[in-house]
Inverse folding.
């Protein structure tokens, strides 16, 4: 346990595992800190571990919200909800416990991946956008989702089961919603089924609102209601969706409006940018969670397939702008559906890359993609567009310049394909494993760890070279800018890793658009693509244990790039135009402060006089008017008076030692009187200096 009162995320995982064992769980778990989950321990016989995980992120954040006295019960209840339970066999046993569930479609997508067959067959219906209706059995300890096989055993059709579930929910919904403000209501049931009440149209229509009903489900346990003619009510719902994205069990951030008895997506004109940013952020997170599971599944199956990331570009103020994915030539991949599609040949000219709107690309290359059963949707690609198809894509992209200008915030022409070592990250950036127990600090730490892991896996692997081992200076090269960023590390790191000038390292980069400005410490070279203005270089040698992949990535970089990185790094280090960046992950994208040129510290050009050992102190600028400063005058008079009195009294000393001490005191106050008198004179007559 940490010294703080609140256990850290890792300590909570230990407590959770212990609680599972106390409840009789015989499964063996390992803590996967970067992913924030418990995963099955590898069997001793070497066989593959089952593909099942317990994600603790939401459980931990909910647990932190409890009072200290309530946490033991909260931990036990959370652990009970993760125990394997069997669904009742008989329809008479289950009928009273059937309830509809409103869930993110991505939740079912995770169940698909974790299912041994890849088809869990959960009963579901589409609702609107990223939301869907599922069927659950409510037990005292958890809610179990129902599959098609259970309905067959009960001899119930999906329509019959949903009708029973809806009647059960209606019987639990006698209490009205609570008024937040005039015309704005929130659910008051607090029974984990609040979201599903949006299916009870008759219950919602009991509340006085202006216009057609509009609802939002910020989290599973909260439903908000207003009318589409209530501008302040709609704004309040959008704000609650924004706030909920950092809460446990956040739902897809959508507004739904009732039209002809059906819920439809509602995006009022006044809130288009905010709702769009929320949607992109939510989609990016859903695809990132999906990617972790798909990577795990591919590893266990021994499949050589690249699970592409959904990258979300950001405007200069950090607002999400466009989503994009990269389709690389010669790579078997699972692509997420994005707004922009970037087609890249890792071994070709980077100027030949094509960035095009997804919908514009489909008539040309859609036949090369096979849609899988994943949720969110993925597309399996094995072939790459031929020259004729690429030409047609470029023509379509050229006809839509606005789409091309909105290129993604990053792409990798040479994917890193490495995994993060938590131990190495802890040694390099201990702040990410700090003891601050606050929920916000813990959230930020986990976000950074996830970002670093994703960058090592999907970032652009480029050359990096040690320039000065004694100072820990490294030059990281970015081929997209044809330039380097200087990074500064603790010299002890250089010594521990036996760095020498010229030692070759690997930088895994992500890029920011040139529209956001050019970083002040970067000098693009003649091969600059013009698309990017900054990059985040992470030195993989300090962050991964994948020695084989690290060596392979370095071997794939041409000798010209290593030479260019070394030469440009030496030039940048000699120029001293700005201080190097902090080479650790948290600071490697922030340009260093400009260096103060030595010539600026001198009164005359350096060529006019021999260079001194140290620059002379600059003179005080001449002031146009004199200033009366009382403090120097007062101190001068006091010190002078003490010195004069000392001179008149020194003759009364009884011995030589006392006389020497007296003269030293007199000398001290005389010097002080001179210094402050000079300061008073300079302030009163500045032009005399």
């Amino acid at each position: 346990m940490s010294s703080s009162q609140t256990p850290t995320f890792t300590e909570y995982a230990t407590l959770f595992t212990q609680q599972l064992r106390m409840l009789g769980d015989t499964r063996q778990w390992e803590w996967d800190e970067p992913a924030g989950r418990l995963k099955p321990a590898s069997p001793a016989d070497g066989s593959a571990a089952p593909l099942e995980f317990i994600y603790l992120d939401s459980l931990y954040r909910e647990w932190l919200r409890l009072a200290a006295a309530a946490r033991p019960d909260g931990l036990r209840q959370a652990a009970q909800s993760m125990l394997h339970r069997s669904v009742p066999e008989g329809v008479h046993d289950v009928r009273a416990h059937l309830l509809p569930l409103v869930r993110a479609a991505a939740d079912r997508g995770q169940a698909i991946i974790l299912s041994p067959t890849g088809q869990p067959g959960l009963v579901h219906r589409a609702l609107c956008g990223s939301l869907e209706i599922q069927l659950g059995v409510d037990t005292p300890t958890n809610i179990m989702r129902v599959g098609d096989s259970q309905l067959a055993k009960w001899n119930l059709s999906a329509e019959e089961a949903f009708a029973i579930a809806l009647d059960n929910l209606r019987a639990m919904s006698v209490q009205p919603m609570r008024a937040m403000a005039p015309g704005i209501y929130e659910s008051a049931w607090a029974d984990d089924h609040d979201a599903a009440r949006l299916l009870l149209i008759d219950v919602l229509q009991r509340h006085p609102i202006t216009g057609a009903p509009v609802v939002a489900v910020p989290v599973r346990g909260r439903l908000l209601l207003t009318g589409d003619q209530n501008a302040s009510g709609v704004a309040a719902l959008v704000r609650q969706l924004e706030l909920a994205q950092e809460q446990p069990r956040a739902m897809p951030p959508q507004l739904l409006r009732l039209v002809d008895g059906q819920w439809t997506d509602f995006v009022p004109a006044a809130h288009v940018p905010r709702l769009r940013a929320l949607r992109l952020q939510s989609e990016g997170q859903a695809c990132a969670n999906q990617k972790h599971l798909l990577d795990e599944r591919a590893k266990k199956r021994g499949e050589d397939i690249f699970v592409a990331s959904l990258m979300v570009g950001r405007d200069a103020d950090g607002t999400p702008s466009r989503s994009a994915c990269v389709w690389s030539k010669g790579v078997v991949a699972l692509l997420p559906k994005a707004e922009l599609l970037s087609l890249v040949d890792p071994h070709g000219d980077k100027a030949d890359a094509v960035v095009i709107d997804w919908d514009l690309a489909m008539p040309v290359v859609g036949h090369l993609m096979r849609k899988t059963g994943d949720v969110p949707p993925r597309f399996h690609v094995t072939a790459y567009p031929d020259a004729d198809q690429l030409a047609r894509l470029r023509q379509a992209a050229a006809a839509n310049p606005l789409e091309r200008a909105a290129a993604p915030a990053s792409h990798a022409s040479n994917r890193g394909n490495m995994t993060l070592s938590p131990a190495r990250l802890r040694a390099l950036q201990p702040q990410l494993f700090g003891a601050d127990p606050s929920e916000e600090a813990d959230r930020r730490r986990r976000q950074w760890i996830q970002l670093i892991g994703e960058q090592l896996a999907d970032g652009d692997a480029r050359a990096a070279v040690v320039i000065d081992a004694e100072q820990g200076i490294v030059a990281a090269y970015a081929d997209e800018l044809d330039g380097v960023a200087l990074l500064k590390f603790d010299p002890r790191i250089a010594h521990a890793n036996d760095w020498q000038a010229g030692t070759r390292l690997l930088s895994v980069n992500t890029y920011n658009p040139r529209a956001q400005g050019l970083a002040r410490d970067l000098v693009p070279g003649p091969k600059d693509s013009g698309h990017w203005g900054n990059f985040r270089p992470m030195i993989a040698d300090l962050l991964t244990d994948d020695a084989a992949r690290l060596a392979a990535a370095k071997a794939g970089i041409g000798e010209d790039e290593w030479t260019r990185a070394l030469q440009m790094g030496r030039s940048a280090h000699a120029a001293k135009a700005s201080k190097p960046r902090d080479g650790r992950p948290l600071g490697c994208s922030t340009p260093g402060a400009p260096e103060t040129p030595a010539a600026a510290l001198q009164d005359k050009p350096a060529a006019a006089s021999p260079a001194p050992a140290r620059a002379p102190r600059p003179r005080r600028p001449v002031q146009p008017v004199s200033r009366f400063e009382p403090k120097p005058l007062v101190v001068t008079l006091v010190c002078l008076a003490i010195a004069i009195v000392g001179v008149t009294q020194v003759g009364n000393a009884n011995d030589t030692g006392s006389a020497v001490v007296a003269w030293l005191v007199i000398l001290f106050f005389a010097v002080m009187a001179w210094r402050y008198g000079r300061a008073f004179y300079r302030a009163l007559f500045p032009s005399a200096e």
Observations:
- Residues 91-171 form one domain.
- Residues 402-411, 597-628 have pLDDT under 50 and may be disordered.
